Amino acid sequence: MTYELYGYGGVGIFVEIMTDNKNRAASDIRIATNKRGGTIATPGSVAFNFDRKGVIQVPRGDIQEDDLFLLISEAGAEDFEASDDLYIITTPPDLLFQVKEKIEEGGMKCTEAGLEMIPKTYVECDEEKTKENLALIEWLEALEDVDAVYHNMKLPE
């Protein structure tokens, strides 16, 4: 199941739930919005702002950036981003495991690989709204049936 919420400042929150009890999950979401704010949105009103993508994380280690880029480009990856200690690779959902296998065949290790909801646009919030949204997101993530929580709030660096 999925729930779509609006947080403070118009932030869209997309919640994926795996449950054996829909009533408990619905009640938990209502309690979260009552205690931490936000509103439950109509289905589709938040989801259109996200794209489902495959995301692979590879530790930097001794890997040459150019070699990895060439390998994943040939395998069908869409985007490549380097951070201090990780390479983050974005793929179409149907090519996630194909790209992951190519990386592993190249002798590199993937620390994470999975499907995620990536925001198309981000919403900037002031410090107070950011704090309130993070409190709501933390509450949602702590719920028993919640599998993943995605949002389109731009976080401060």
Concise description?
With 157 residues, the protein is of the alpha+beta class. The chain has helices spanning 22-36, 65-75, 96-105, 127-142, and strands spanning 2-6, 12-17, 39-40, 50-59, 79-82, 86-91, 112-119, 146-151. The chain has a 4-stranded antiparallel sheet, covered by helices on one side. The chain has a 4-stranded antiparallel sheet with strand order 5-6-4-7, with helices on one face.
The general outline is elongated
| Average pLDDT over all residues | 92
**Main sheet properties:** 4 strands, antiparallel
Percent of residues in beta strands:
25-35%
What separation lies between the terminal Cα atoms?
32 Å
Question: Helicity range of the residues?
Answer: 25-40%
- How many whole angstroms does the radius of gyration measure? 18 Å
| Number of helices in the DSSP assignment | 4
SSE arrangement, N to C: EEHEEHEEHEHE
Query: Ranges with pLDDT <50 over ≥5 residues?
Result: none
Strand element count = 8
Sheet with the most strands: spatial strand order: 3-1-2-8
**Strand-pairing-aware structural class:** alpha+beta
Describe the overall structure.
This protein has 157 residues and is of the alpha+beta class. 33% of the residues lie in helices and 30% in strands. The protein is built from four helices and eight strands. Strands 3-1-2-8 form a four-stranded antiparallel beta sheet, covered by helices on one side. The protein has a four-stranded antiparallel beta sheet with strand order 5-6-4-7, covered by helices on one side. α1 (22-36) runs antiparallel to α4 (127-142). The radius of gyration is 18 Å and the shape is elongated. The two termini are 32 Å apart. The model has no long low-confidence stretch (mean pLDDT 92).
